Amino acid sequence: MELLPLLAGLGLFMLGMKQLEESISALAGVPFRRFVRDHANTPLRGIAVGTAAIAVLQSSSLVSLLVLAFVGAGILPLTGGIGVVMGANLGTTVTGWLVATLGFKLNLTTLALALVGVGGLGSVLLPKGGRLREISAFVVGLGLLLYGLDMMKLGVERFAAQFDVSPFAGLSIFVLAVLGAGVTAVIQSSSAAMMIALSALHGGVLDLESAAAFAIGTGVGTTVTAVIGAIGGSPDKKRVATAHVGFNVLKAALALLLLYPLLALLEHIPALDDPLLRLVAFHSGFNVLGILIALPFVGLAAELLRRRFRGPASLVNAYLHGTGPDVPEAALEAVRKEVRRALGMAVSLNRYALRLHPGPRSPWPDPDENDPSAGRRTYGQRYERLKRLEGELAEYVLQLQAQELPPELARRLMAQLEAVRLAVIAAKSIKDVRQNLVELRLAMRDSTDQWLERFEVNARTLYEALDRIEPGQSPGTVVETLSRLRNDIRERRDRLLTDLYHSAGQRQLDELELSTLFNVNRELHSSGKALLRALNTHLLEPEQVEVAEAASA
Question: Dihedral (C-alpha) 484, 486, 492, 495: value to the nearest 10 degrees?
Fold first, then answer.
């Protein structure tokens, strides 16, 4: 029965960690996700964000989820995601420092019971969904963690008094590292596994070298969750999981090789005369050393992982298959990126059909222009890819809507879906008259060539104007520009229609030519109008779109 307090303490410690994870996640919410998205775009910054995030949140699972989602959505580059994973390992050492400096020096039972009492009352009595209730849940988690730590400390001391430690003396550091990895994999908490090592060292169950070897294994054990999550997952998940496993295994191998020299070095530091402090210093030290050695090779590792894990060849989208619905903000960003790709495909198709060339720095390039196989695709195949992308986006948004989404997020998703629908309509309108344009050009008749030239001038004017619309422009500028362009294409259509009627009255065109030119004029206007509405819907928020539509009606 001497093991019962130890097991109870471990259980309470892990329950407290889980409660802390959930409450801090709720308190951090969207601002934290934006912080990760905006500040982890390079390996070095990713390491800093990963270290800080884990130190504050104490939740490697939450940070790993965000990394997988943001890398898959193209919000976070793979190199930045690898940096966050590397920094997360260092962030987990913060708990060890707090416990070693305070947890084993003070009697925490009174404080822990007070925290559980106050936090528990707040969690029950305060209104649901309020920030004070989330803070109360955090207080409960902290209290459970401290109480569990105190129970675990006492349990180990009692257990050690009657336990024969001689079997552990004969175990190699490799076996103890494997044991540390196994324990961490089972309990799914490197912080809890580190508490086991600290408690065992404090109680005399393990000596410092054995506890250090056990601590080395905890980093490898944390990778099990990432490996399981990557099985059957997207290439981006496999890339991040592989980087996670590879870094931790290499770091563990290095730490085992340097275990005795590092511990000997730390022994000469006066501030680390306590074995508990030497253990956490060793834990932090080999994590820092691993980061310093691996950092110069992050870019090379990312490139190798991209080559090793490629996306499904049958899919047109570049971001949706790598972004699950777990992080709605990342899903929305993935949808936005795919809609922009669809707009680029539609603009490129129309330029090709109208014999126009894109500007040198067009913000709406063909997303397939760097694909070696894209040059072999026919116009029809490229149009089919645009339609397939529309279908993939529709299926993805429907999957997102199957879960409970905030109303504002749902509106934004539907607006982006409407934008891609309008982009396809813009491409279809030109596709419908492409053959007419080819026939009119091949006829080489003076009576129709002048109209073809006017069509091309009008189209060139519109598409050159589109090249000047940057996604980062202010909403007011976008509304003003698109409204002006919609008025311009309507006026050019009406002017050209009037001139066509005038030519018909003078018998300059036969009936077939006149009908064809009427049709081309109508579809060119329909295409331009749909394309401008697509840009309107893509670049603006839903409420801004309503104002813009009313202004240009």
Answer: -100
- Which residue's structure tokens are 């109508």? 522
**pTM of the model as a whole:** 0.59
Neighbours of 493 (CB within 10 A): 18
Question: Residue with structure tokens 């129309």?
Answer: 350
Distance (Å, whole) CA 301 – CA 85: 13
The span from the CA of 297 to the CA of 251, in Å, is 14
Q: Domain residue spans in the chain?
A: 3-308, 320-551
Alpha helix ranges (H) inside 40-189: 43-57, 60-72, 78-91, 93-98, 109-125, 131-161, 166-169, 173-187
- 258-287 confidence digits (pLDDT tens): 899 988 888 888 888 888 888 888 888 888
User: How many C-beta atoms lie closer than 10 Å to residue 338's C-beta?
Assistant: 26
> Quick check: 10 and 44 in contact, CB under 8 A?
no
320-551: CATH number: 1.20.58
Q: Is residue 378 scored above 80 in pLDDT?
A: yes
Give pLDDT tens digits for 148-186.
Answer: 766 766 665 555 445 454 565 567 888 888 888 887 777
Q: b vs e for 340-361, b when ≥16 Cβ sit within 10 Å of the residue's Cβ? A: bbbbbbbbbbbbbbbebebeee
